[in-house]
Amino acid sequence: MSLPSTTDRPGPEGGPPPESGARRHSGGFRLPWAFIVLVALLAAGRFLLAPYLTDPALQTWATVFVAVCVQALPFLVLGVALSAAITAFVPPSFWTRALPRHTYAAVPVAGVAGAVLPGCECASVPVASGLMARGVAPPAALAFLLSSPAINPVVLVSTAVAFPDDPSMVVARFAASLVVAVLAGWIWARFGRAAWLPAPRRTVGTGEGKVSAFLDAMRHDLLHAGGFLVVGALAAATLNVAIPREWLTAVAGVPVVSVLVLALLAVLLSICSEADAFVAASLTAFSPTAKLAFLVVGPMADLKLIALQAGTFGRAFVRRFAPLTLVLAIGVSFVAGWTLL
Amino acid sequence: MSRQTQGAVLLVLGATLLSISAFSTTYLNYVRPGFRPLIVGAGAVLAALGLLSVVADMLGRPRAHDHGSRVAWLLAAPVFALVLVAPPALGAFAARRDDGSPARSRTAAHDALARSGVTELTLGEFIGRAYAPSSPTLAGRKVRLIGFAVPGEGGRGWYLTRMQVRCCAADALALEVAVHGAPAPAEDSWVAVTGTWVPWPDGVPDEYAVPDLTATEVSGIEQPTEPYE
């Protein structure tokens, strides 16, 4: 796990190429042991354990856990496929033409471009990784990573539906999220070090190699990022069932604390960015600024996302990037809440 | 983790996603109905990728150098949760934990309800109408509501409840109506309640309060295929 996710991918330049090296014909047919063992375990568990797993708390936990996984997996598959396609099929020259050469100018352009990926945050992590592999400057790719789950049309429409009497909430969410994404990109451009990110992915050869590289990249990223997604889902489900909601109403009236509490709640609950506006709207006891912080922090730094980033970009990266986005998101929410709401 | 193991995990996960979405309606316990094509697609991609790896390995095809991380084993966790616990739709346990108030659409226009006969309403619409600022479209009208029973704390009364889900069960909110004039059914049992709304004593309240309903008939029903509103 400590290995950066992209360095152990097979490729023509690094490690033995799939076609020529490491050719191990073990001579004929081998049983798929791993598959047989997995299915046997599932079948045995179904008959031996299942009758005892009926506690309502456990069932509620399992429902939320499975729900987060089932909801996020299609977006992860989509993001991984897009990322693998970007690395395998889009030439690097495309990005140098599409984005301004200067990194500080490329950051806001990439941030606004986040609006075109309609999906939740799980898709944006692998896509940002694919962009970096194709030569897009990391600060620009990170601005895209942060802005895309918060400012795409699907999310803005659902925010408008959740706050029917309050169109300024949509404006504030859009503006605050974009500002946080651009600021984070610029700060990373000024202070970030290349060593905190994994080495760029190697480019892919031509012909048949492209398709097999595409499939290998997809399989690798799915397993790796998917494993971390499950870590995030486990944590989110546990906290979802374990946090007593009465604690929330107790602090709702306190000015600054209530904003910090909702920001923390957004981190812990890891609700999909397409649905978080409805949850925010239901927290009626809280101030609009607190709700805005919930909407800005959630798509940028929730548990599920932090786990995914750790899996994709490595721990050295996430140890610096997650606190940076969290502090920026809370700070910008305060300012936007005072000026816009 | 060998390529064969990686393939096995992907195949089992993909097959599970397909079985809860393409071949049954179990997925409705976890996400909105609109997610079906996405889940079927993801399941098919995962299963195909897994199958490719497993078959390539069975036939002894050359291996790319693979040392995928152990964290990938965790992808089997949702499969085990689905097969061993078979998590049902959120019920009374989740509803009791939620004390937020549902987001009400105060601006939505409401058509007048039929003066005679019974109108079937969702809990969300019933609560929305109860909070409509001007026209008392509910007063005196007979309505039929569907939900599960949540007995009140300390055996006082009971609530007809349904969870409202916008994306997945992690964002569920409880819609509740307090039912009067009928004994509490068993916890988590699904019922259809026919009755009339009890008007607010002093106009629409500012703070959210659960609306009341006087029941004339309570009958047990099967859990709907779509458990959430």
How would you describe this protein?
The complex is a heterodimer of chains A (341) and B (229). With 341 residues, chain A is mainly alpha-helical. Chain A has one domain. Chain A has 15 helices and no strands. Mean pLDDT of chain A is 82; it is low at 1-27 and 202-207. Chain B has 229 residues and is α/β, with parallel strands linked by helices. Chain B folds into two domains: 3-87, no CATH class; 93-220, OB fold (Dihydrolipoamide Acetyltransferase, E2P), CATH 2.40.50.140. Helices cover 29% and strands 20% of the residues of chain B. Chain B is built from five helices and six strands. In chain B, helix 5 links the parallel strand 1 and strand 2. In chain B, helix 1 runs antiparallel to helix 2 (36-58) and helix 1 (3-21) crosses helix 3. Chain B starts with a helix and ends in a 9-residue tail after the last strand. Chain A: Belongs to the UPF0718 family. Chain A: Pfam families: ArsP_1.
